[in-house]
């Protein structure tokens, strides 16, 4: 290579490096500081919500956790308060607009105005679409679309009045690429992605930043709470194995850090786990090829039948394989995360 060409490459590389360093410096200077901020997390009593709460507590955030189960909420409160966090728990069903409005009013009057809202509450139904009923679709939409919408509409007046705020909507890679045997879940997460991206565009003028997270499978310990239909034992075993495998999932703590970093820097979106990132890229390049591949995956999944349209929990669907050493990561996560 000629000396002139070498010099050109050197200066190009130096310029790229300088721009990267400048970008990092600017992001660091403009990063949102969670210390002293009041952060409300829906579904915050266990799983990913609790993991996020722990990480925010280490940064000095004031926490408000809401969920439906009073015992789980109290367990989470005791853990976090025991580590010095300032935490308030609120029993609330996010699918009930009146409960949401009452909770937000109570928190803002009796505790603190809400600076950050994290819409995390979720539900999942596993099985062939032929075994799903309208109920599973309505249930998923209520939790993943209407719940975040009710929460957002309830906190917006205060955020606007105070000149800013942050919202993190935790959707799923299933809201970008629809996954076989998770159709109600995926359809509702698609709706949440659309809501979240539209809100980001409209709320920017109020200095309210909306970030959309589309994580892949995370080891939160939550599969036991899944609703399973059809050949439920086979469905659940496959689901739990994928949830626990390092090839298809990652620790919830790792995903949570990525999501909070995206939120602090005001990023539009963040996808976590390598498996989900590859799936998202493939879908962008060729939606047709992606669905063809997923059709092959679907052909290998359990068919219709079994318990049919009846519903059981993951806990009721355990098999020797789903409870084996192959799912040790999920079992340990369940113990850690109040699941």
TrEMBL record:
**Alphabetized PROSITE patterns for the sequence:** ADH_SHORT (PS00061)
What the entry lists under Gene3D superfamilies is as follows: NAD(P)-binding Rossmann-like Domain (3.40.50.720)
Extent of the signal sequence = none
Ranges where the record places region Disordered: 305-324
Top-level taxon in the UniProt lineage:
Bacteria
CDD domains listed in its UniProt record: SDR_c
Q: Which residues form the Ketoreductase domain?
A: 37-305
The molecular function terms in GO held by this entry are:
oxidoreductase activity
Check the record and name the InterPro entries matching this protein. Answer: KR_dom (IPR057326), NAD(P)-bd_dom_sf (IPR036291), Sc_DH/Rdtase_CS (IPR020904), SDR_fam (IPR002347)
PANTHER family in the record: DEHYDROGENASE/REDUCTASE SDR FAMILY MEMBER 7B (PTHR44196), DEHYDROGENASE_REDUCTASE SDR FAMILY MEMBER 7B (PTHR44196:SF1)
Membership in a protein family: Belongs to the short-chain dehydrogenases/reductases (SDR) family.
Q: What is the name of this protein?
A: SDR family oxidoreductase
The lineage, from the top, is:
Bacteria, Pseudomonadati, Bacteroidota, Cytophagia, Cytophagales
């Amino acid at each position: 290579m000629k000396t002139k060409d070498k010099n050109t490459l050197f200066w190009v590389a130096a310029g790229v490096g300088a721009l990267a360093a400048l970008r990092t410096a600017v992001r660091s200077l403009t990063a949102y500081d969670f210390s002293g901020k009041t952060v409300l997390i829906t579904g915050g009593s266990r799983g990913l919500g609790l993991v996020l709460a722990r990480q925010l507590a280490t940064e000095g955030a004031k926490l408000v956790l809401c969920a439906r189960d009073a015992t789980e909420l109290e367990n989470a409160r005791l853990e976090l308060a025991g580590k010095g966090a300032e935490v308030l728990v609120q029993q609330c069903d996010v699918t009930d607009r009146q409960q949401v409005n009452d909770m937000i009013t109570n928190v803002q009057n009796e505790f603190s105005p809400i600076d950050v809202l994290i819409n995390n509450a979720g539900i999942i139904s596993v099985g062939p679409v032929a075994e799903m009923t309208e109920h599973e679709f309505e249930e998923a939409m209520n939790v993943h679309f209407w719940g975040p919408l009710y929460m957002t509409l309830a906190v917006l007046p205060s955020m606007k009045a105070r000149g800013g705020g942050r919202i993190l909507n935790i959707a799923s890679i299933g809201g970008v690429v629809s996954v076989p045997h998770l159709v109600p879940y995926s359809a509702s997460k698609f709706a949440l992605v659309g809501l979240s991206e539209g809100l980001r565009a409209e709320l920017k003028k109020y200095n309210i930043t909306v970030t959309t997270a589309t994580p892949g499978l995370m080891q939160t310990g939550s599969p036991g709470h899944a609703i399973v239909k059809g050949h439920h034992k086979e469905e659940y075993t496959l689901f739990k194995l994928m949830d626990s495998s390092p090839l298809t999932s990652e620790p919830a703590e790792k995903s949570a850090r990525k999501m909070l970093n995206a939120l602090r820097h005001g990023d539009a979106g963040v996808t976590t786990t390598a498996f989900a990132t590859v799936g998202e890229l493939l879908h962008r390049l060729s939606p047709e090829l992606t669905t063809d591949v997923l059709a092959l995956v679907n052909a290998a999944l359990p068919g219709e039948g079994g318990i049919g349209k009846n519903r059981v929990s993951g806990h009721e669907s355990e098999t020797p394989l789903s409870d084996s050493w192959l799912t040790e990561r999920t079992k340990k996560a369940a113990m850690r995360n109040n699941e």
